[in-house]
Design goal:
The protein is mostly helical and 188 residues long. The chain contains 8 helices and no strands. It starts with a helix and ends with a helix. Helices cover 87% and strands 0% of the residues.
Length: 188
């Protein structure tokens, strides 16, 4: 998945042109418009995701440093990277942080657990819904419901890909509704 993402990001025009060649000639303009909108939407989603990941990294790193946990920087990076997977990534990152903090004693582990709960609440209930709502223009409850649905059906991959998939679906539905509105207004 990482390799595919890097390959698409390195030469997006190659894949865009290839996708357009798959469409029948009379629909290429419509497909190009949808693909361009999807590109813009996914770019906004990725920027929002990177902001969330950076915030999780910074808060975790600073918090663990204040607690006195060794390897706070590495644990912060790991927590930030795992924040890519909504909700579950933070749980996995928090578990790793608490287990790594045990080497510094029970007080440090308990402090790390409290830090983890704070970071998890910040990421899951504040940053992700607010930032992603701005990036995708989809209500937070809809995003969360779609995450639950895809998480139940497809597991961890469904959770990780729920937000970009709902963004793509929203773009396609929006384009089809615009096209439908144009046809209706022309008929009137």
């Amino acid at each position: 998945v990482l390799f595919l993402g890097l390959a698409f990001a390195a030469q997006p025009h190659v894949y865009r042109n290839g996708l357009l060649q798959l469409a029948p000639a009379k629909y290429r303009a419509d497909v190009a418009a949808v693909v361009d909108r999807i590109d813009d939407t996914l770019e906004r989603w990725l920027i929002a995701q990177m902001i969330t990941m950076a915030a999780v990294f910074l808060v975790t790193w600073i918090g663990l440093t204040l607690i006195g946990i060794q390897s706070a920087f590495i644990l912060g990076i790991q927590a930030g990277l795992l924040a890519f997977i909504p909700t579950v990534g933070a749980l996995i990152g928090g578990l790793i942080i608490v287990l790594a903090s045990l080497a510094s004693g029970w007080v440090a582990a308990a402090s790390a657990a409290v830090l983890f709960l704070g970071v998890h609440a910040m990421e899951s209930y504040v940053l992700t819904p607010i930032i992603q709502r701005q990036a995708l223009d989809i209500p937070p409850a809809t995003l969360f419901a779609f995450q639950i649905l895809l998480g139940v059906v497809f597991g961890l991959w469904g959770l990780a890909l729920a937000l970009p998939l709902i963004a793509i679906v929203k773009v396609v539905i929006g384009y089809l509704r615009e096209d439908e509105d144009v046809v209706e207004s022309a008929a009137v």
